[in-house]
Amino acid sequence: MEAKSHMSALTPAQVKNIQKRLNPKTEDKKVRPNWEEEKKRNIRSVLDKELDREEKTGRIRVKSIPKKKAQKKVGDTKQGLEVKEKKERPQIKKVLELPAGVTIKQISERVSIPSSQLIQTLFNMGEVVNINQSLEKDLVEILSNEFGFKYNIIGSEEKTDEIYVDSEKDLKLRPPIVTVMGHVDHGKTTLLDAIRNTKVASSEAGGITQDIGAYQIKHKGKKITFIDTPGHEAFTTMRARGAQVTDIAIIVVAANDGIMPQTVEAIDHAKAAKVPIIVAINKIDLPNADPNKVKKGLTEHDLVPEEWGGDTVCVEISAEKKINIDDLLEMILLVADLNEIKGNPDAEGNAVIIESKLDKRMGPMATVVVKRGTLAVGDNFVTGNSMGRIRSIMDEKGHRIKIAELSQPVEILGFSSVPQAGDKLFVVKNEKVAKDIVSRKEYDQKMAKVTESRKSITLEELSKISEQDEAAVLGIVLKADSNGSLDAVTKALRNTAEEDININIIHRGVGAITDSDILLAAASNSIAIGFGVVAPTNSKLLAKKEGVEIRTYNIIYKLVDDVKLAFKGLLEPKLEKVEKGKVEVRELFKIPKVGSIAGCYILEGEVERGNPARIIRDGKIIYESRIASIHRFKEDVKKVTSGYECGIKIENFQDIDKGDIIEVFEEKEVT
């Protein structure tokens, strides 16, 4: 009774606790099933998350997984909802223009996806990147596939050109851009003066700014743009930089002189540029003028005049007397119409730098010719590795204008630095886009330095192409010591042609390999071959800069064999002549029983007894031998360095003369 009275005095909660302690087994049976169910639910949730993560990284591809997820109740796990939302993400329809070396941050801004999500996606695939790290193209491709956006990576001016492709319906006829080329003193400048009715010697005659380098005239209501360049070297330099600015080339030939070496060069340069050629036969007013001689000479260079059944337009003129100048202009317009020279006047502006300068008052300024669209004051632009905003536009007469139209030559201000001739100028939407393009160009240049490769083909590269059974074309700029040698080598090279072998002799001439030859070889992806001639030091430096291979030979069958072996993929390791020193012969000494000793001055490098040497006279190799002995102050020495005088005897050669150059070199085998 006492116990019952005590129990009745307790609260219900206290009674429940006492019962738990008295009957623990009964309570455990009620609690344990709930705990086991909770454990199973937690394990299932963890497994679901793990499966989702595995599916994201692409390490499993199980078709039944989506079905299992579909059977789960909404709200079982947030991960399932996230995956579903990701799969339903709408694709970005527009094509994004991304700079080379684009960063995670830049992609995130353009596609409106958190940068952390982009980084996580690449991390799951084993790529650790940060928000400001430049991405390679394959990583951008992964993000493109994962998040459903299309893109274009613009890595150079050429790729920019590819993006700006105009449809045929947008194109309209535009004024032709003409370049005048030819031999010295054949009347190029006089012809240009006759066309623009002014004299270069008179200061700013007719209000024309002479140093603009280009001008536009109007003939019978139609405009023609002329580029006043220093010659075909400037023409080719621009083309080598990718600026195909000229539509028509005019070759000026004097009727009293005929075809001259620089005329041939001008023809070859125009052919390599694949532009229509008009021949202006000048000075027909002179008593000894012979236009038929010029036309006959043209046929030797595959330019057959129209009246002789060919397709080359020839116009007989006198620039001095202004005879037939209108006929020449009409022919320019006719050739332009036949070739349908067109452009898109409503597109984004695109121009080519013709020449540039740094003005003390105005700052950097340049002459440009508009190739696409229009240029307007206030436009933001990119050119070369710099950007700017057009502050002023002036025509060839120095008048300020607001808009420059298609094919119009103008002078503009607003460059951040002085551009180079041949640089392309692109109008962009705003300053931000300009900065993006400049940054990608800087990135491209850094990458190019890392993976720098030759621009021009070499015989070794040709050998590799032949090994792969691919059709190959070898462009050659050929120079020889005489016309006889030139013809013989040309014939021998052309006879080597086979079914899958093509030899294209871009230019041939007599004399040493010049800068002009190197520029032409660079522009046409060719090699320079010298037979019995060499290249001066400055031309060698230019060749190294432009990536042009120079090969020199004295034996014709060795030259032909090298080309044949290259085509067959069997090119042997060549003996490369590494120039060691250059010596000028300043005096001659005849010593009895010894022979001729050349009193020399070491111009460059060093000379060592026994070194191979070749004697150069007027740019031609006249003999190859060795250094037999070297003397200083009656002492026989082994070596002499630059800046010193010495006496040199050439082995088995007595016909040395003052002014000769002795090139001393070493032969190294190059695999």
Account of the protein in words:
Helices cover 35% and strands 31% of the residues. It has a 6-stranded mixed sheet, sandwiched between helices. It starts with a helix and ends with a strand. The chain is built from 20 helices and 31 strands. It folds into 7 domains: 2-43, no CATH class; 52-87, no CATH class; 92-154, no CATH class; 175-340, Rossmann fold; 350-450, Elongation Factor Tu (Ef-tu), domain 3 (Beta Barrel); 459-572, Translation initiation factor IF- 2, domain 3 (Rossmann fold); 578-670, Translation factors (Elongation Factor Tu (Ef-tu), domain 3, Beta Barrel), CATH 2.40.30. α11 (232-240) packs parallel to α18, α16 (459-467) packs parallel to α20 and α18 runs parallel beside α19 (537-546). Residues 1-6, 25-33, 56-90, 198-211 and 448-455 have low confidence and may be disordered. With 671 residues, the protein is of the alpha+beta class.
